[in-house]
Amino acid sequence: MERLQKVIANLGYASRRKAESLIKDGKVMVNGHVVTELGTKVNSNDVISIDGNIINKDITYEYYILNKPRQVISSVTDPQGRKTVVDLIATKERIYPIGRLDYNTTGLILLTNDGQFANHLMHPSFQIEKTYVAKLEGLITSAEIRKIKAGITIDKRLVEVKKFRIKKQDAEKNTSLVEITIVEGRNHIVKKLFEKLNLPVSKLSRVKYGFLTLDNLKSGEYRPLTIKEVKKFYSL
Ligand code: URA
């Protein structure tokens, strides 16, 4: 066991003093948890990362796009034993989802083990557009469409709606199928938005994330992102 700042310095990442300030600033993680205690001891099995980048393991970064099925949870493990998005991908690397989709929401989700990439995509300044198709219980009126386009305030914050269109209305079943594009990343935000208009969402799917679409990925299928796609996210 050795002191964390010494291990960081020995890896050639930073001087001992610089390593100490990185730790104090909360930039260092050990096994995925931020460590700010200078005396922390680590061993060679511990995974150390700085600013999301693993520095002491020979890890190759992986990036996947998955078409998430229903009844799969967007996390690495689930205390209740439900299937997770990570279970669907055959890899030995410790990947995790970038953001989340609800248990019963389907569609496009990205996974990676590259913390810098994940942080980049989730940073609020990085206004990535996400498009959802939602089935609503109710027929949407033109007044409601105007309200949506103007933006709806949820928990005192405006949800900016970039695009909105009706795909289908079924008067007999009293349902609407709509497509909505937002930049928001708050949990359950699409459902909350329509709930505010008394239009409960009975089905939800994310069909686009930035420039990425699912193309021919079927439910439960995935593929690695190309280097070009990863670079494109950095250049947006
Ligand atoms: N908004 C929701 O309500 N649920 C999701 O899964 C994603 C966005």
Give a verbal description of the structure.
The mean pLDDT is 93. α1 crosses α2 (16-24). Strands 7, 8, 9, 10, 13, 14, 15, 16 and 17 form a 9-stranded mixed beta sheet that branches. A 4-stranded antiparallel beta sheet has the order 3-2-5-6. A two-stranded antiparallel ribbon has the order 1-4. The protein is elongated. The protein has helices at 4-10, 16-24, 115-122, 142-150, 189-195, 227-235, and strands spanning 2-3, 28-30, 33-34, 41-42, 48-50, 53-54, 63-68, 96-97, 106-112, 130-137, 152-154, 157-159, 161-170, 175-182, 201-209, 212-213, 222-224. It contains 6 helices and 17 strands. A hairpin with a 4-residue loop joins β13 (161-170) and β14. It is α+β, with helices and mostly antiparallel strands. The protein folds into 3 domains: 2-54, RNA-binding S4 domain (Structural Genomics Hypothetical 15.5 Kd Protein In mrcA-pckA Intergenic Region, Chain A, Roll); 63-124 and 214-235, Alpha-Beta Plaits; 129-209, Alpha-Beta Plaits (2-Layer Sandwich). The site of uracil has 8 residues, from α5. Uracil binds next to α5.
